[in-house]
Amino acid sequence: MASHAYPSARAILMAGPVVLVSGRPDEGFWILPGGGIEPGETPLEAVRREIWEETGWKTTVHALTVLPNVWMRAGGDWMRETLHLYGGRINPRHLTALPPSPEAGTLLRWASLDDLVTTRQVVLVPAAVVPWVIRMGGR
Question: 123 near 28, Cβ under 8 Å?
């Protein structure tokens, strides 16, 4: 089994008391908007580009932390991720007008802190981002 390094940048985008998440409902988990950092790109440039690609929104975000994450891909390869985590606020007018995801089968949705913490109706991965979402949500 091979091991691969993967630098990424994701953002906690809050609109009032809810956070934007992305995922495929059949997979059973959700992720924050963002993705891989391309060669020559800074983490901030990457997160802004990814948010634009996924939502069509231009956002202002600020750096929160850098988190390590490890997971196994379907083929059995281990991925070692360096996740640059950002935070930002979205105008609540976006609550009623989520754009369709450009990735087939992927949905964008708003999740409340109760969805993440109390009822666990939304399983956010990696789990290490959840305390940061809670902090940004004011709990």
Answer: yes
Q: What is the enclosing helix (H) or strand (E) of 138?
A: none
CA quadruple 114, 53, 87, 118: dihedral, nearest 10:
10
Q: Distances in Å between the alpha carbon of 98 and those of 17, 22, 108?
A: 16, 11, 7
Q: Is 138 left (phi over 0), alpha (psi -120 to 50) or beta?
A: left
Which residues, 6+ apart, have CB-to-CB distance to 26 below 8 Å? none
Query: Distance from first CA to last CA of the chain, Å, rounded?
Result: 41
Instruction: Look up residue 2 and give its two tokens.
Output: 């091979």
The separation between CA 65 and the C-alpha centre of its own chain, rounded to angstroms, equals: 13
What is the model's pTM?
0.89
| Tens-digit pLDDT profile for residues 63-80 | 999 999 887 777 778 888
Beta strands in 16-45 (DSSP E): 18-23, 30-31, 34-36
Residues 34, 11 contacting (CB under 8 angstroms) = yes
